[in-house]
Amino acid sequence: MTAADGKKRLTDVADTQQLLRLIQSIPSPKAEPFKLWLAQVGQERIEETIDPEQAIDRALETYLKKGYSEEWVHQRLLAIRIGNELTDEWKERGMSKGRDYAIPTDEITRAWAGMTTRQYKQLKGLKKENLRDNMSDLELVLTMLAEATTTCISKREKPECLAENREIAKRGGSVAGRARLDIETEIGAPVITSQNAADFQQLMPVFTVWTSLIPGLIRMVWSS
Q1: Angle, in degrees to the nearest 10, between helices 70-92 and 137-157
Q2: DSSP classification of residue 8
Q3: Which of 130, 116, 108 shows the shortest CA–CA distance to 196?
Q4: Which pLDDT score is estimated for 206?
Q5: Of all helices (H) and strands (E), which one includes residue 168?
Q6: Are 101 and 150 in contact (CB under 8 A)?
Q7: What are the boundaries of each domain within the chain?
Q8: What pTM, to 2 d.p., does this model score?
Q9: How many Cβ atoms from other residues are within 10 Å of residue 77's Cβ?
Q10: Taking the C-alpha atoms of 159, 162, 163 and 164 in order, what is their torsion angle to the nearest 10 degrees?
């Protein structure tokens, strides 16, 4: 990787899963709290598989802990349901998760927001963060309108290939695009802004802090 002096140097790196596996293997009492936490997360995941409603309850709790308002969280959970209905429809039409989903999703975003998903994330200064977690109420509402409309059109017309799904996605997004223009005319301000979660949240995102501390925690525990 590129070092501070601009030269390429051999560097030890790991993704999140590998870091957590390292924590599990550390033979130190200081690692026990993290191992217990991992066990708890695993138990919760099993419980959510048995009873999916628990996943919804925990998602609500997580968003609230991150500092989002309760009103925003309920709207975000509704957006998740509407998004899932659209992906279920795409699956029904023979689409494969991944690139097949990404292409019509981009068409929806471009049609209502005037930019691709990547450009939208760049506007908000995002990298790996979820775009919808960084949307305002109006942005979320228009995203839901675009996706719900796309789902309805698809169920009626039953597209049979990616090209047809892409065209329907563009039409569904255009409905929300026209609504966006009407809203902006009425309120005299743009709906799409560079504001992100940092502007919407009331508290410091606890889990973002925790993630950034993981490498340091590993070094501290391993050296003990």
Answers
A1: 20
A2: B
A3: 130
A4: 40
A5: helix 162-187
A6: no
A7: 69-209
A8: 0.68
A9: 14
A10: 10
The secondary structure of 129-165 as a DSSP string is: S-SGGG--HHHHHHHHHHHHHHHHHHHHH---SHHHH
- Average pLDDT of adjacent 10-residue blocks, the chain of 224 residues: 88 84 84 86 81 76 79 83 90 83 91 92 89 88 93 92 92 93 92 84 44 47 48
Do residues 133 and 198 lie in contact, with contact meaning Cβ atoms separated by under 8 Å?
no
Question: Which tokens belong to 122?
Answer: 């760049």
* The pLDDT of residue 185: 92
Using an 8 Å Cβ cutoff, are 126 and 198 in contact?
no
Rounded Cα distance, 21 and 52, in Å: 26
Evaluate whether 165 touches 91 at the Cβ level (below 8 Å).
Answer: no
Q: Tell me 95's DSSP state.
A: P
Any idea which residue has 């508290």 for tokens?
203
In the three-class reduction of DSSP (H, G, I as helix; E, B as strand; rest coil), residue 161 is classed as: coil
* Calpha distance 154→104 (Å, rounded): 12
At residue 2, what are phi and psi to the nearest 5 degrees?
-75, 125
- Looking at residue 204, its pLDDT comes to 39
* 202 vs 26: CA distance, rounded Å: 36
The two tokens of residue 220 are 């501290």
Tell me, what's the pLDDT at 42?
85
Number of neighbours of residue 187 by Cβ within 10 angstroms: 10
Amino acid letter, residue 87:
T
